[in-house]
Design goal:
Layout lengths: L2 H10 L1 H14 L7 H4 L10 E4 L3 H17 L5 E5 L2 H11 L4 E4 L5 H11 L3 E5 L5 H9 L3 E7 L3 H9 L1 H9 L3 E4 L2 H9 L7 E3 L11 H14 L6 E7 L4 H14 L4 E6 L5 H10 L4 E3 L12 E3 L6 H6 L3 E4 L12 H5 L4 E3 L7 H10 L2 E3 L3 H13 L1 H17 L3 H14 L1
Parallel strand pairs: 1-2, 1-4, 2-3, 4-5, 5-6, 6-7, 8-9, 8-12, 9-11, 10-11, 12-13, 13-14
Helix pairs in contact: 4-5, 4-19, 6-7, 7-9, 12-17
């Protein structure tokens, strides 16, 4: 498929895109407004720089880079776009009115053209893998310089690009610079036709995370409120439907040995909160909902983390963590936050979106890849019983995070090169 056929297909799918928004709006209030932005109909001001991230994870990684650019270029006007309400909320929370913010339009030619005409950026920084053929093509034709920051490319994604090489290669070759997270990702970009001099290995911005002191204080206070120091608390973070049942079965297994154990289950998406609550109750486990400020008593078995922006705090209050999206065909989520807090971490086999990070943590002994819930239960129980092994995993995670810091400085320098050019 080439870009012309791709564009025709998107026009044909336009009614389905409207239905998609309507369907998401039924489940998630965040999708009920601002539809005009999705089709390039918002009234926007011109900006010098456009930065695009996808959802919460990419936005959190982008915010330190955005703030560094703002400090270096205080007169520069910046537009930040996302595609999800959670990402949008993070932009507003962290950057407020210091940037112009909206959703990135669907990659329909007329929508993208209208959007770029209004914003008229001189440079675009795209986070991670959020590449859209029409956006890149039209920006490139307008002479806009484009950087792919914090770029990751799993083997699975590279294979998919290769299968659509007539569409993907012109898009990738239009990029002016790529800040790759790893040597493997850099080599995959080059294999797809990107000039080697455009690709630089900078590491992942996610390693440059800073745990705010107030988060640690809050986490400690919650821990003391919920359980004593000898209790057993674990987090199932960013879990999806298809993983809920496995997590609850794991927790029932733990309760046989440790009746005081507490599971903090945090669904990835807000529209899954109620379904998760129903499934917990149906399992026969006692439930407290964070959104309703339910009391977490000594008899509470599951705390549902159905609030926004508290996952890091929950990790800080726990002893061990499973990171979701990995027991299903999803690709996984970031395991660095629990590792940076000294928690032994577990992921399932489907972690290709964080393959390099997972590999580093696994090789150091900070993380273990499990195949199913039964194996997760066994590993959690073993760490709870074996304090030296637990401590070794905890310290290994801290070392890996500390050893790989520095990506922000390198990617900021590349961004400056893009802007100054």
């Amino acid at each position: 498929m080439n870009r012309f056929l791709y564009s025709i297909l998107l026009y044909l799918l336009l009614p389905l895109l409207v239905l998609y928004l309507a369907f998401r709006a039924i489940k998630s209030p965040g999708y009920r407004g601002r539809w005009g932005e999705r089709f390039g109909l918002a009234k926007l001001k011109q900006s010098d720089l456009l930065i695009h991230s996808v959802s919460m994870g990419e936005t959190l990684a982008a915010i330190p880079l955005i703030k560094a650019v703002q400090q270096q270029y205080p007169q520069m006007s910046i537009t930040v776009t996302t595609t999800s309400p959670t990402g949008s909320a993070e932009v507003v929370k962290a950057l407020g009115t210091s940037v112009q913010h909206c959703y990135l339009p669907f990659d329909i030619s007329m929508c993208v053209k209208r959007f770029l005409k209004q914003v008229s950026p001189k440079q675009i920084i795209i986070m991670e893998t959020e590449l859209w053929p029409n956006l890149v093509d039209q920006a490139s034709k307008l002479g806009v310089k484009i950087m792919l920051a914090n770029a990751r490319l799993s083997q699975k994604s590279a294979d998919q690009y290769q299968q659509r090489i007539s569409l993907s290669q012109p898009m990738l070759q239009s990029l002016d610079m790529i800040a790759a997270q790893s040597q493997q990702a850099a080599e995959r970009f080059v294999a797809l036709g990107v000039s080697p001099d455009k690709v630089k290995v900078c590491g992942s911005l996610k390693f440059d995370l800073t745990i705010p002191a107030e988060k640690l204080v809050q986490a400690k206070a919650l821990r003391e409120l919920w359980r004593d120091d000898n209790a057993h608390i674990w987090v199932a973070g960013s879990v999806h439907p298809g993983e809920f049942d496995a997590m609850l079965k794991v927790h029932k297994y733990l309760l046989n040995d440790h009746p005081d154990a507490l599971l903090i289950m945090v669904p990835r998406h807000p529209e899954q909160f109620n379904a998760a609550a129903e499934q917990i109750l149906a399992s026969g486990l006692s439930l407290a909902r964070r959104s309703q400020q339910d009391e977490v008593s000594a008899t509470t078995q599951v705390l549902l983390g159905d609030s926004m922006g508290e996952l890091l705090t929950f990790y800080g209050a726990a002893d061990q963590a499973f990171v979701g999206g990995t027991l299903i065909d999803n690709g996984g989520h970031n395991p660095l936050e629990p590792a940076a807090l000294g928690l032994p971490v577990y992921v399932g086999p489907n972690h290709w979106d964080f393959a390099e990070i997972t590999g580093l943590l696994n090789d150091a002994g900070a993380l273990k890849v499990i195949d199913n819930g039964e194996e997760l239960a066994t590993e959690l129980l073993a760490k709870f019983h074996d304090k030296p092994t637990y401590q070794a995993a905890s310290e290994a995670g801290l070392r890996v995070v500390d050893a790989n810091k520095g990506a922000l400085k390198q990617q900021f320098e590349l961004a400056c090169t893009l802007i100054d050019a």
